Amino acid sequence: MTLLRLYAALAGLVVVTYLAWPEQQQGWPLMLVTLSPLPALVVGLFRAPAGTRLAPWLLLGGTLVYDVGNAVWSWLLATDGRAVADADPIVGVAMTGGGALILAASLVVVLQRGRADIGGIIDSVIVAVGLGGVLWNTVLLPAMTAHDMSTGQQVSRFINVLLLSGTLGALLRVVIISDQRMMSVRLLGVSVGFALMENVAAAVGADWVNLPYMAAFVAVGCAALHPSMREVTVPGQAPVDHLNTGRLVFLGIMLAIAPVIGGIRAMMGLPIDGVLLAVSSAGMIPLVMVRIARLSNARREAERALRRMATSDPLTGLPNRAACVARIETELAAGPDDLAVLFCDLDGFKPVNDRLGHAAGDALLIGVADHLRGGLRDADLVSRFGGDEFVIVCRGSGAADAMVDRIRCLVAKVIPAGGEQVRIGVSVGLAHARPGDTVDDILTRADLAMYEAKQRKQIGALSLAHSA
Fold first, then answer.
1. Are 241 and 126 members of one domain?
2. Which residues have CB under 8 Å from 178's CB, separation 6+?
3. What CATH number is associated with residue 431?
4. Statement: residue 128 has pLDDT above 80
């Protein structure tokens, strides 16, 4: 923090005294300040954990590209004052390239810190197009038109504003979803804010145009030196992405804001950028549609997950009692022919659970479940009915015999549990469906047959009984 305070004090002093320098010499303090974040970014780069340094590298690269443009402008200004005439194309390319790299760094932060928050990236683009279009139509375009700036200058400025708006949106997304204060991200956001202010000042021809530009670089340096920089790309909490009323209102506002502002200006007889209005509207509609589609898909996936939780056993992943009963109802409605229910109870499970612990008992249940569902036909169902009880529903000639053979293989194998190799016996009650059966009828017969089989049980063996 001492290094951060020293850097902020020295760089800030250069910024506040900038206008006191002779005009022909102002390029040197400008270049000094814009170069100052580079050592800080190198420090921040090596502070970041290995494997999470892509964003700092991109931020460093973007700052270097900006500095190329600054160096050209400063050199021409200091030599013969031809900066505006000769440096504009080079500076324009540098501003666009540097902005693109810094935007890429921000999106990497969203992906890494926000755990692949694709929805957040789409939101950032929507914010960039919406708010950037408003800033362009209401402030920048009228001012640049009034100052007779060339089409090339206007295009370069527009792209730069668009990139900066996207960067600010991405950084705000990280701040919103972060479970920490993330001061480095906030400082980077301040830097982007200063850069946008510089674009406005340049468009209106303000004398102090370089002050916010220099302040933007100081903010980048402070962000790189702040201790929270090492946490910027460390994965945080997975973002919650719900389709709620607030999100839909936000998307609607961003979709409508540029056309509404453009329409109001047109009715007032003020100049508007028709090309921008058409491009932004055409670009915004598919973005919003994609965003809504993603949110809708996320909601459907959440509903499917809830249904899975309601019908699945959380330990083994097998269908639970409710799913089993529903399946038997469906099968009985289709007819009783060749429909069989096997009610299975593990013999010797309680001693294993008591001697080796509940974790070993869980491992044993998982091993039994994996064996029973291995090679299962689509038409068959294996469910965990509760505790150490499993119910199998199958249909077809020989289907019940095939399942009995699978259970016979189960009792012949050993299952790892609690660091030991365990063998388990199974008591099986088999009931065939009859005309007029209900779910309770067939399950009761299978259950009674299982208890009959258990009477002659032998631990580590298969005991089978058929219902009367």
1. yes
2. 113, 185, 236, 237
3. 3.30.70.270
4. no
Q: CA-CA distance, 255 to 238, in Å (whole number)?
A: 27
Name, in order, each residue with C-beta under 8 angstroms of 65's C-beta and a sequence gap of 6 or more: 94, 97, 98, 101
Q: Which is more confident, 253 or 218?
A: 218
Identify the band that residue 331 occupies on the pLDDT scale cut at 50, 70 and 90.
very high
Q: DSSP readout, 13-40?
A: HHHHTGGGS-GGGTHHHHHHHHHTHHHH
Q: Which residue has the tokens 């303090």?
A: 29
Is the pLDDT at 18 greater than 60? The verdict is: yes
The 3-state secondary structure of 230-297 reads: HHCCCCCCCCCCCCCHHHHHHHHHHHHHHHHHHHHHHHCCCCCCHHHHHHHHHHHHHHHHHHHHHHHH
State the angle between helix axes of 274-311 and 245-267 in degrees (0 to 180), rounded to the nearest 10.
170
Do both 240 and 354 map to the same domain?
no
Q: CA distances (Å), 465 to each of 381, 389, 428, 445, 461, in order?
A: 20, 16, 6, 11, 13
Rounded distance between C-alpha atoms, residue 60 and residue 355, angstroms: 60
Contact present, 384 and 390 (Cβ < 8 Å): yes
211 and 351 housed in the same domain = no
Residue 431: pLDDT band (50, 70, 90) is very high
Choice among 5-9, 119-123, 310-314 with the minimum mean pLDDT? 119-123
Confidence of residue 275 (pLDDT cuts 50, 70, 90): low
Q: How confident is the model at residue 47 (pLDDT cuts 50, 70, 90)?
A: confident
Model confidence, pTM: 0.59
d(CA 213, CA 211): 5
The pLDDT score that the predictor gives to residue 98 is: 78
- The number of domains in the chain is 2
* Cβ neighbours of 354 (radius 10 Å): 11
Mean pLDDT of 193-209: 81
Q: Do both 132 and 264 map to the same domain?
A: yes
Longest CA span, the chain: 108
pLDDT at 257: 76
Angle at 466 between CA 460 and CA 468, to 5 degrees: 145
CA distance 443 to 433: 10
Asked if residue 192 and residue 46 are part of one domain, the reply reads: yes
364-376 confidence digits (pLDDT tens): 999 999 998 887 7
Do the bridges between strand 339-347 and strand 389-395 make them parallel or antiparallel, or are there none, so unpaired?
antiparallel
Q: How far apart are CA 463 and CA 410, in angstroms?
A: 12
The span from the CA of 107 to the CA of 6, in Å, is: 30
CA–CA distance, 467 with 243 (Å, rounded to integer): 52
Could you tell me the residue range of the domain that residue 32 belongs to? 2-307
Q: What is the DSSP letter of 412?
A: H
